[in-house]
Amino acid sequence: MRIDTASSPAAPERGDFIRDIVSGDLRAGRVGTVVTRFPPEPNGYLHIGHAKSICLNFGIAQEFGGRCHLRFDDTNPVKEEQEYIDSIQADVRWLGFDWGRHLYYASDYFEQLYSWAVDLVRAGRAYVDDLSADETREHRGTLTEPGRNSPFRDRPVDENLDLFERMRSGEFANGARVLRAKIDMASPNINLRDPVLYRIVHAAHPRTGDAWSIYPTYDFAHGQSDAIEGVTHSICTLEFEDHRPLYDWLIENLPVPSRPRQYEFARLNLTYTVLSKRVLLRLVNEGFVRGWDDPRMPTISGLRRRGFPAEGIREFAAMIGVAKADSVVEVGQLEHAVRNVLNQTAPRRFAVLDPLRVVIENYPEGQVEEMDVVNNPEDPSAGSRRVAFGRELWIERDDFMEEPPAKFFRLAPGREVRLRSAYFVTCREVVKDASGAVVELRCTYDPATRGGDSPDGRRPKATLHWVSGAHAVPAEVRLYDHLFSRPDPGAAGRDLFADLNPTSETVLQGCLVEPALTGARTGDTVQFERLGYFAPDPDSAPGHVVFNRTLTLKDTWAKLQAQGRHDTT
Ligand code: ATP
Ligand code: MG
Fold first, then answer.
1. What digits encode the pLDDT tens for the residues 540-551?
2. CA distances (Å), origin 41, targets 76, 80, 81
């Protein structure tokens, strides 16, 4: 597997082969206004691969002063649902794009598409075929052998017209007949071996209800929908390259109002995850995750719930660019882009995930001080906040060791550390329970070090975060790791589901966070100092705060790059 770590950071004006084509068309006057479209099938939630396509299509429209349509490719009612239509619109908007009044549905064109299919039948370029699915497969041939004509291929036009109309009116069972284009069963391109244009599907459609018993195939609906909308550049992923001759054949043989052209780019693949709605749907339906928006899912709604900002996803899309060769992108690169944004924007907060009690013996009982704490050292305009400090505090359990090894500089018996933006404290005594577990540290503080500096220039080797015992709010914190334990899930014939990471989610109870975090809402991603980025989860309820770990602070991709590694398996 080739993993691409060589891309350079975003440069907004940077070109790619599609932008070159678009600007060439504009310069040569072949195109007046650039019109692109994003054409999801509403059969699942959008994922990060779709985000790449959205950023490309809407991005090009923006950069070249054109427009981008959102068009639902809703031609298969068996798998499509209103829930998906709604989520797709919400996700595209959240990513920061706007289709204005250009919201379309392939189903709006069903009547027009049907009448064009009738035109093809009249012109002797399409026929109704009665072969069964198995027989059709048998006649299709292979990559090395030509196909064979169906015995129904030369049906008279009138018979075809009659049968096609009866297919429409619902007279025949699912699969009994199809309408096929009459092109060339010997074509080296299998897509041109009399492709199916209409199939019989007795199913209610989310928008057209029971009006239709036949539905156009993707191949028949797609290019014609582009032509109806005046799309100039129909940009899709590489797997449709072999469909382009059919796309062009249909555009040439139908009285369509415009002549769009199709261009293909490499789809996004990411390590440690899977970008396929079919697989993601199974993960949801079979209960491997909490839903389409589970923070481990590569869906846009999952990334949002996890705390990824839209800007980070857009930066990632710009960073990886658009190419014509398939590759796999390190998920670390996405995380790197997101950290870059969060480092600038996420307010810093105090939270203790595994609390250990600290009592400051020489601090007056009942006294509370409001310490001034900087919100974001990267952004002075973020200002500062007041955090209550008192005699009883909580620190992170692993910030203390009774018998510290040489390189452990944090708290230990007799040792002094700084509590961030508060005071220097020294550990005087370790309190244990009957089993010998450490349950409390008795410390003293130096009143001269208020704010975190000592007048005598003393500099402790460690600075710890903390929360006040009297003020901290309990929280549930969910730690997330990759959904799959391998970079290439399901590769080499392995069962995809056997590659799921059994520890992709760890739920911590009894964490303690700053009171300022109680009202936080989805999208308010913060940095828990020294721990990582965290985002409030919608499962939060009054009295029960839930946070998701968006990312740790450690940037593995930056490290990989520094080591000059460009290939991993
Ligand atoms: P999946 O393979 O996940 O089921 P799909 O291609 O069936 O996706 P569509 O709803 O048809 O999903 O996709 C809408 C648009 O998004 C298409 O133009 C498609 O080419 C593009 N797209 C889908 N997956 C990716 C990806 N991984 N990278 C880039 N673009 C993608
Ligand atoms: Mg598709």
1. 998 899 999 999
2. 8, 8, 10
